[in-house]
Amino acid sequence: MSFGITAVDYEARIDFDRLRRDRVRRALEQLRKSGLGALVVFDYNNIRYITSTHLGEWGRDKMERLAILTAD
Predict the structure, then answer these.
(1) pTM attached to this predicted model
(2) Could you tell me if 28 and 69 are in contact, meaning their C-beta atoms sit under 8 angstroms apart?
């Protein structure tokens, strides 16, 4: 069954808040397992995964943007 992203009252669809929380939780779990204090990401997809932000396609090849996720 394929669920859309449009909200309806007759079924639970994608819970974007939970999706965002789970992504950060998983990233933090892996960061803590690694023993590192922080994670610095430059890749467009990694930034979007960790921060839930979308810059747009024009920013995909720009390496001036980064995100930092700290273990604590």
Answers:
(1) 0.75
(2) yes
Contact predicate 69/31, CB 8 Å: yes
SS (H, E, C) the chain: CCCCCCCCCCCCCCCHHHHHHHHHHHHHHHHHHHCCCEEEECCHHHHHHHHCCCCCHHHCCCCCCCEEEECC
Sorted by where each begins, the domain ranges of the chain are: 16-70
Token pair, residue 48, equals 């979007």
Query: Could you report the per-residue pLDDT of 17-60, keeping only the tens digit for each?
Result: 999 999 999 999 999 999 999 999 998 889 999 999 987 888 77
Average pLDDT of the residues in 54-68? 81
Helix 44-51 × helix 16-34 angle, to 10°: 110
